[in-house]
Design goal:
six-stranded parallel sheet, Rossmann fold, alpha/beta, single chain, 33% helix, 2 domains
Length: 308
């Protein structure tokens, strides 16, 4: 039997968690013989080591009607606006942010288009479920965090490229190593691995926030402010299943969380409990679990499309 062909498309400027997640779904499909995932890149896309598809991916022309399925995320819909797409071709739409539900956001207008929507968190699902044309499901993000054996040379590292002013304000008050410019993922992971405490600052709202999982697994203690999309997997250490400190996204609340984390570092019992809970969280958000759930969804795509 011929493989079912799935077309992806991207405008890739620089690495981001959003691009990485699209690459993960592309890889999930190509991991089995049943599917053949191809990708088209815009002419202005970067083609270098920062691009997860580089250098092995065979880039294709944009011929969507030659495919069995289309996979879209973010602004990818615009690439299809000038093409007369066969309405019988099922569209899988990955939704990675709660902002899709906001009328003022440029991605909100796409919710009226028929698609099978895959939300990366329960919070995203809740935000768009009553606005979307077509079935809405949730597959929580998975991630692969490499093991990095690094000496803990930094007591407090602040990853603040998503909120530089807030990060600098904290760094002025606290003895911290702060990063406010974009770093390639490999460099950021090594910074996290060298830290006893890692504070990762999201935007005010996120759809999931993958750096939280990276910080949990690499630093001794992660501090991740509430950004809506992380509520389903970030659990404050005050709880029995706590895996991080999760303060409100407020200056004094974050400062208080840093002081709490410093006090916990010498408490062996608390540190063991945190690590045990982090391992459980990592298992629940593995790429293999994400892959399994997505391939299960793909086996029902035609049925969902025809019913929706």
């Amino acid at each position: 039997m011929n493989a079912q062909k799935v077309l992806f498309c991207r405008q890739f400027d620089r690495y981001s968690g959003g691009h990485q997640k699209v690459f993960d779904y592309y890889s999930h499909l190509n991991s089995v013989k049943k599917y053949q995932a191809d990708i088209w890149f815009s002419e202005d896309s970067a083609w270098d080591d920062a691009n997860p598809w580089f250098p092995d991916c065979q880039r294709v022309n944009f011929l969507p009607n030659q495919y069995n399925y289309l996979f879209l995320a973010g602004m990818d819909w615009d690439n299809y606006s000038l093409h007369d797409i066969d309405p019988e071709i099922p569209i899988i739409n990955l939704i990675q942010h709660v902002r899709h539900a906001l009328p003022e956001e440029n991605v909100n207008r796409f919710l009226k288009n028929k698609a099978i929507r895959v939300c990366v968190s329960a919070e995203v699902h809740s935000a768009i479920k009553d606005l979307a044309n077509g079935p809405v499901t949730t597959i929580e993000n998975g991630i692969c965090v490499p093991e990095i054996n690094s000496a803990k040379t930094c007591e407090l590292f602040i990853s603040g490229y998503k909120n530089p002013p807030f990060a600098r304000m904290l760094a002025e008050k606290l003895n911290a190593v702060v990063q406010t410019d974009y770093l390639p993922r490999d460099e950021l992971l090594h910074q996290l691995a060298s830290a006893r405490i890692a504070l990762v600052l999201p935007h005010e709202t996120e759809g999931f926030f993958l750096p939280a999982l990276e910080a949990m697994q690499l630093a001794d203690i992660a501090i991740v402010p509430d950004c809506v999309g992380n509520r389903s997997f970030c659990n404050d250490i005050e709880n029995a299943n706590g895996n991080c400190l999760m303060p409100r996204y407020d200056y004094q609340e974050v400062v208080n969380a840093i002081h709490r984390a410093k006090a916990m570092l010498s408490n062996t019992q608390v540190m063991h409990r945190i690590k045990r809970n982090v391992l459980m969280t990592a298992k629940e958000h593995s790429l293999s679990r994400e892959r399994e759930k997505f391939l299960q969804l793909m086996s029902h795509v035609d049925e969902l499309w025809n019913a929706g």
